[in-house]
Design a protein that fits this description.
This protein is α/β, with parallel strands linked by helices. Helix content is 38%, strand content 14%. It has two domains: 244 residues, 3-Layer(aba) Sandwich (Aspartate Aminotransferase, domain 2); 136 residues, Aspartate Aminotransferase, domain 1 (Alpha-Beta Complex). The chain is built from 17 helices and twelve strands. Bound molecules: pyridoxal-5'-phosphate.
Length: 405
Amino acid sequence: MSENATLSVSRRKFEPLPEWVGPSTRLVHGARRPDFNAGSVVPPIYQTSTFHWPSARSEATGHGDAYLYTRTLNPTAEEPVELVRQLEGAEAARLFASGMGAISAAVLSLLRSQEELVALRTLYGGTTDLISELLPRYGVRVRQVDDSEAAEPEAVLREGTRLAILESPTNPTLRVHDIARWAEAADRVGAVLLVDNTFATPINQNPIALGADLVVHSATKYLGGHSDLLGGVLLGSRDLLNRIDAKTYLGATPDPFAAFLLTRGLRTLALRVARHNENARRVAEAARGHPSLAAVHYPGWANPAEEEIAKKQMRGRGGVVSLSFKGGSEAADRFLSHLRFVHIASSLGGVESLVSVPRETSHRHLSDEELAARNIDPGLVRISFGIEDPEDLVRDVAEALDSVG
Ligand SMILES: Cc1ncc(COP(=O)(O)O)c(C=O)c1O
């Protein structure tokens, strides 16, 4: 390149939106910046691993303001993460190649040998595997607590706890935990509180406003929303995220195309989540009390205290419902084989309804005792309701339930 050439892409700021805009407007108009090349309404995908430098000398080129290499930063990856940052009300955010990429970067960066991690026993299976199998090899002390213990965070978090990990609602039994109370208890002992907000989505719940230090999303789920990408987002203060710089050397950077798909999915997040919320609630209410069911798991339904917490911290209860069959795995299998619109697959948060058996998917690495400790019985199925018409889903589930007898 000639000496006077400008960098091919320089880091332009996003056009700011007024504070008062609602989430749907923010999702449609947020994180946009002018495309000076062709004026395209939808920003181009910078499908490149690297960027031209006009000079090898960083002082001469102002590299601090430029894109250098996609593992570190790519313009296409900045848009979706900025949208989620605005929705979650976080100071800073980073995009990862998957939810597990975000979670592992956070725990590996923040914990050292001999420090203590406290985590809910009912975390997503991948997170449980990470903290119970990998971390102890590096000398991290891991303490897992049951849902009942988690109702008293002041007793659970103590001096020396470095990091606490919470999910609410939990996967797959949809228990609800008091995020503000956990945040206060973590603060008191100087621990960092990380909340996995994947199930709730930023439309239904904002843990940072409740006092959490870090929020993580598997963007693979509701944020992307179409079951066609993998991604993760980590959010928090600028200071804390600067300490979690492991992403660049752990390598969990998203491909630009996945980042493009994520922006596209995010534009409709608020609309989709409203329908997911409605569908899950209508089916949960219709299924409640069915003679073939031992329990319907839905956020806030475990006990009156959790209902109060859910009312306080959630604007909607999310799109997931779990059903526990009295007749165990045989009854569950009969139910699954009668579903017409709910397909068997191990993910959630997409436009299509999906059902999985947690013992066979997200929690398959756990022993029978560990599964029992988490209330994951053989007849438990987890359904992620999509955006189909509510009447069709209610009918589909009702007919499948009746087929169980
Ligand atoms: C609650 C929760 N957190 C994290 C993850 C991991 O995300 P990913 O599959 O994008 O790595 C999942 C995946 O199912 C999840 O359900």
